[in-house]
Design brief:
Distance between the termini: 75 Å
Keywords: Membrane, Transmembrane, Transmembrane helix
Structural class: mainly alpha
Order of helices and strands: HHHH
Length: about 120
């Protein structure tokens, strides 16, 4: 049962990594850096899910009469983890969509540097 939750997290992380990389490439950013964020988040979520699994297993051994309750708590904790994981990925992806293209950002930076250089030249006179 615990493997199913981990598989959901891994599949969502790999899909998110693909979409993050694709969007970064379209905007002119390095795709490898964009793919890193969902992968790191996926690893963190899998570790937390494994911690839930281990604690439910150990508590189930120690308190046999509470196995059904622990199973429910484990299930709810994993679904909550998956929901938070998907919300964070969705928010990050929407922020990435709103980010300016790399070319436009370079043009803005060049224009700003040019303005500063002109302002510095005028102040020296």
């Amino acid at each position: 049962m615990g493997i199913g939750y981990i598989l959901v997290i891994v599949v969502a992380g790999l899909l998110a990594s693909y979409f993050f990389g694709k969007l970064a490439k379209e905007k002119g950013y390095p795709a490898a850096k964009a793919r890193r964020y969902p992968i790191l988040l996926m690893i963190a979520a899998v570790i937390v899910s494994l911690a839930f699994l281990g604690s439910a297993f150990l508590l189930g051994i120690m308190m046999e009469n509470l196995r059904n309750v622990l199973s429910m708590v484990y299930m709810l904790a994993n679904w909550f983890l998956i929901a938070v994981y998907l919300v964070v990925l969705n928010k990050a992806y929407s922020n990435m969509k709103e980010a300016p293209d790399a070319q436009k950002l370079r043009e803005r930076m060049e224009a700003l540097q040019k303005e500063r250089a002109e302002a510095g030249a005028q102040s020296e006179e």
